[in-house]
Write a structure and sequence with these properties.
single chain, alpha+beta, Archease, Possible Chaperone, Chain: A, domain 1, three-stranded antiparallel beta sheet, 2 helices, 8 strands, globular
C-alpha cells in the first residue's frame, strides 16, 4: 500500500502519515482513547524518523493491541516527541488488512516549496 502525506512542518507531515497509516486499516471515528503514550524518537534522517514512528505504531498494534486515535508531534531536545492517544483495537472497526512493516523501497520525506511531503510503501 502506498501512503502520501503533506504538512506545513516536518512534525505535521509525520502525523499526517501516521493518520494515513491508521485510516488505511481502521475506522477510529468516534472512538475514545483509553491511554496516552509518549514516544521520543532520536534525531536522525527525516526518513529514519518516519520509518521509526510508523513501525512503532505497527508494533504497538501487533504486540499490545493498541491503535492511535489521535496524535501530536513536537521538536524536543535531540529528536521528536510524539504523543499517541491510544484505544484498544477491539474498540475500532477494522476495515482492511493491518500493516506489517514500512518498506524502504521508494521512501521519500523532504521539505519542498509548500512545506513537507512524504511517500512510502507499507507491507500488509
Amino acid at each position: 500500500m502506498r501512503i502520501e502525506a503533506w504538512g506545513r512542518s516536518r512534525e505535521e507531515c509525520l502525523i499526517e502519515a501516521l493518520c494515513g497509516l491508521v485510516e488505511s486499516f481502521a475506522d477510529v471515528s468516534g472512538v475514545r482513547a483509553t491511554t496516552v503514550e509518549y514516544l521520543r524518537l532520536p534525531e536522525g534522517s527525516h526518513e529514519d524518523l518516519l520509518v521509526d514512528l510508523l513501525n512503532e505504531v505497527i508494533a504497538r498494534l501487533d504486540v499490545d493491541g493498541l491503535v492511535p486515535v489521535d496524535a501530536e508531534a513536537e521538536v524536543v531536545d535531540g529528536g521528536v516527541g510524539v504523543r499517541l492517544a491510544m484505544a484498544d483495537v477491539a474498540a475500532v472497526s477494522i476495515i482492511a488488512a493491518t500493516p506489517k512493516a514500512v518498506s524502504l523501497h521508494q521512501l521519500r520525506f523532504a521539505p519542498g516549496p509548500r512545506g513537507w511531503a512524504c511517500c512510502l510503501i507499507v507491507d500488509v
